[in-house]
Structure prediction request, 204 residues.
Amino acid sequence: MAIAIRDVREHELDSVLALNNAAGPTILILDSNRIRWFFDNADYFRVAEVEGHIAGFLMAMREGSDYDSPNYRWFCERYAAFAYIDRIVIAKPYRGLGLGRIFYADATSFSEVRVPVLSCEVFLEPRDDVSVLFHGTYGFNEVGQQIMPGLGKRVSLLAKDLPSFDFVRSTYLDGPTGQLPNQPWLAQRKRQGSAAPRRAAGGL
Prediction:
């Protein structure tokens, strides 16, 4: 079974929206305007394609966005530079195949050359032990909790240090060129809502 992780395409937004809204109670419902906002503004928005079908997606934001998520804002208030995983969804027929770990490995690879911290949250009410265990075994630690405004549900705020970023920063971002090498796997997706490409967080 061939699996491709790639940037989402505009014509796939309706399929991604349907997948999101069928995911269950731990994934907040979106509408067409909101999914379009993510397409225009997310720093990382990739899908898993399996035999021509969208099997899942992951969206992540860096610091400095006007995203109004209370969990994202929590990290903005405490971290100068980070990547925040807003949501990951795997379609039911493709669960149990390891796509979650593939996505997180890809998101980590994307993040560790740009920022020192990868962050996210998991619901504690109702407690999702599968998600808690998954994140714990992937190197995340709880750095706080909060009750989500409007939902009244407690979440655990998680962060994972990305030690490779120190090497990337000293060698490239603070080096002679001040930027990453020009390689396809290092490319930043072109965000429709931004006139200029996002730079890595050098000089912290």
